[in-house]
Amino acid sequence: MNYPQRAVRGVRRRAVRGASQLATAASTPFRGLRWELRPPTRWPVALRAALAIAIPLTIATLAGHQSWGLLCGTGTFTVLYGAGRPLRSRIRLLVLVAVGLIAGMALGVLVSGNLLLSITTTALVGAGATFLAQALRVGPPGAFFFVLVVGIGGYLPTHDIDPLALVLATTTGAAVAIPIAMFDLILDRFGPERAAVAAAQRAVDRWVATTPGDPHAEDRSTEATNAIHDAWTTLWDGGEPVASPPGPGDDPSGESVGETVRAELATDLIVIQQQFSERLLPTQQANPDLGGEPTAAPLGRPPLRRMITRALRWPTTSLQAALRVAAGIAAAGLVAGVLVGSGHVYWAMAAAALVLHTGMDRRATAIRSVERLGGTIVGIGLFLLGGFADSGLWAVVVVVVILQGLVELCVVRNYTVAVVFMTPLALTIGTAGSGQAALVIAQDRLLDTAIGVACGVVVPWLVGWRSGRRMVAAHLSRAITSAAGVIGLLATGRHQDREGLEGQRELALDLQELSATAGRAIRDEPERIADLVPVRDATAWLGFTVLATASQTSPGEALERVAPAQAPALELAARISGLEVPEAREIRAVRAMVGKRPPLG
Predict the structure, then answer these.
(1) How far, in whole angstroms, is CA 537 from its chain's centroid?
(2) Rounded CA gap, 101 and 564, in Å?
(3) Of 2, 60, 192, 352, which has the most beta carbons under 10 Å away?
(4) Quick one: pLDDT at residue 139?
């Protein structure tokens, strides 16, 4: 698959003019990336979240049914998903999330009235949602709201809330949220694509600025590789970035404008990728084998089936996180519902899911738990002092809308502050028009949160507590195997055809997963994987070098000199899979076969 000639000409004009010119170009932003002047903020997301709950709540309050408007909030959670995704990808994700939330509410309603069945169902939904969110790279807020909605569906029907009204409210909220979640694309349809390319430029600039021996070099290279991969994924999510630009007689509007923008962004990203590759493969003289311009676009997100298949290869973070979430939800539900007899068991289950569903390491999980509990305590104080639930119907509307916006504004930068606003938001919704005493429900909130976060802290020490070494070894083996596959395709000149691009995509994904898995294992079990750290570093450099070489080698050109590297790479992967740890120098030797320069002259 080829780039349009316009894109190729753009690369020819702006890209490879020698290593010194590339280094100079890398030190300043491209003129085409002017949108980079302002860093992204959470204001658009916060405003969309506030508007999504404001519309149904205001209409319901005017109609005299404020409680039903508050229930619509279970569907407006949809608005929180897909931020930063382009139009085509975002609408698909939002529809799937909406369907999932509605189905979750219906499932919770079906099992309400049976505590053990409700706990079991919530645990299974939590595990499934966590696995899919991780496997499909859904991004924040991940699986959490699916767990919360199922829990609400199991709780409210036991307190005289019409089950059908619950499902209808969730459906209404989701229907309102989907168009609101698209508002930012009305102002700039290609904003996500531009932001992704700009992020790749920043990451590569940081990588180019590293000096020999810089201890952060490997991290900077990882960040650059991930950013380039994510930028290509975003471009493909928004539409094929290699469509032909409009011809002289075409109307420069509609799809033609979109094709032109995507072609220009693809051109920028080719240049960025060339900067990364040239910096990764430095030389004092131009390398004939690296002189070609890349003319085949890296592929975007893998098909859904492939992403799920990848995540099902044991061991993976997706499977481990799903098991931990199921265990945490079940434990929190049993402690809160059976041992303590709490009135809001779903709060405990949701708190456990919240600290576990992202698959963080044990230390980060403990920190998140402390933040959750501390923020809850302060938030309860704010709720009791403010008397939000007793201030009248319209005061409730204003409070809920403002708090919803504040939560989304703060959740990324300071989670504790976000929880401070999240707690009175939940308590205001829970007490408004219910007749329940504010102090009693606040006590339940604190108790259930404490139970949930305690279970969340304990579970990682019981489920997969010594799995770090096995997981790192498995990901090392996968990354080296993928690198060997691309090496073989390079040797036969098939690195830029469909099979070659798929192989490069697999390698990029494996490197991302290796980086994340190794990082967690280093923090959880530093002594047990100490001997794997140099191997991890060498494997990362091997993968980066293979990707850079594939990017810089002309389509159809057989790079026969790399062929001898494939067999030792496969042999190393097999040894690591059997938990035999090779020397890092063995992997570096394979990398040298790929990245070495042939003699000139």
Answers:
(1) 23
(2) 52
(3) 352
(4) 87
DSSP helix/strand/coil, 464: coil
Closest of 146, 140, 178, 173 to residue 42, by C-alpha? 140
pLDDT digits (tens, 9 = 90+) for 505-549: 999 899 989 989 999 999 999 999 999 999 999 999 899 899 888
Average pLDDT score over the chain: 84
Instruction: Estimate to the nearest angstrom the gap between the alpha carbon of 374 and the chain centroid.
Output: 26
CA distances from 10 to 13, 266, 276, 294 (A): 5, 10, 18, 12
DSSP 8-class letter at 244: P
Query: Between helices 163-181 and 43-62, what is the axis angle to 10°?
Result: 140
Phi, psi dihedral angles at 316 (to 5 degrees) = -140, 160
Burial class (CB in 10 A: 0-12, 13-18, 19+), 526: exposed
pLDDT surpasses 60 at 242:
no
The 10 Å CB-count burial string (b at 16+, else e) for 489-518 is bbbebbbbbeebbbbbbbbbbbbbbbbebb
**Sign of the alpha-carbon torsion through 582, 583, 588, 594:** negative
The terminus-to-terminus CA distance of the chain in angstroms comes to: 34
The structure tokens listed for 385 are 């002092």
H helices of 411-437, in order, are 415-431
Q: Is 292 helix (H, G, I), strand (E, B) or coil?
A: coil
Query: Between the CA atoms of 551, 552, 557 and 560, what dihedral angle is there, to the nearest 10 degrees?
Result: -90
**Res 483: pLDDT:** 96
Which DSSP state fits 336? I
pLDDT attached to residue 36: 30
* Single-letter residue type at 593: M
Asked if 573 and 487 touch (Cβ cutoff 8 Å), the reply is no
Going by the DSSP 8-state scheme, the letter that residue 335 receives in this structure is I
Contact (CB, 8 A) for 486 and 547: yes
For the record, the structure tokens of 237 come out as 């999510």
Residue with tokens 């020397």: 583
Both tokens of residue 473? 């070894």
Q: What global pTM score does this model have?
A: 0.84
Q: What is the three-class DSSP state of 414?
A: coil
